Amino acid sequence: MDHIKIINKLKSLKNPINVAGMARFGINPKFALGINIPTLRNLAKDIRKDQVFKNNQNKLHKLTIGLWKSKIHEARILASMMDPPELLTEKQMDGWIKDFNSWDLCDQTCMNLFWKHPSAFIKAKEWTKRSVEFERRAGFSLMAVLACHDKKAQNEKFEEFFPFIQKYSTDERNYVRKAVNWALRQIGKRNKELRNKAIKLSQKLVESENKTAKWIGNDALKELLNK
Known about the structure:
Elements: H1 3-12, H2 16-24, H3 37-49, H4 51-54, H5 57-69, H6 73-82, H7 90-97, H8 103-112, H9 120-127, H10 133-149, H11 155-159, H12 162-167, H13 174-188, H14 192-206, H15 211-224
Helix pairs in contact: 1-5, 3-6, 5-6, 6-8, 8-10, 9-10, 10-13, 13-14, 13-15, 14-15
């Protein structure tokens, strides 16, 4: 089994109706096949069980690189589901975020793979400084995912994200502001101490003269004050 065979399998599952629906939800339909996430997860599970890949992580990594290079939307999400985290490099991460052209590809890659890298906290802060919309979103999405999934990280590592959230709370681009808001809310939901600090920052944003910062603060407070 190689990436060409898997791509052919994906193409056989193409659903034009779903592609149209993806566009309505703000997902870039270019190179998309309209395959849903549960189907991709089941396919990823089956591929990982294959003895060729189960016993050789290097071959699995090579497979995922081939899938990513195809540019096919679902092939890239599938790659993020299967790539061995221990073989993931910072160079690969920096390269992949430049290919993000849709919020779901960005978020799925962060959720499935990027947060597992030892440099994830560093990359999250670094990427927020990028000017490209989905590259900056990747930074804040990664913050949110780390807040959800990294159960061992200390509060201090998340507190380091607050200055970045405040600084870029004025970015009015839709996919950035929503990711900033997501990061703020998820950090605040980790524990009581972080919740209090997230509420304090949210209140500061509400007091801002910037409408985007106000929206982020108000929306975060709705969830954090009712938790």
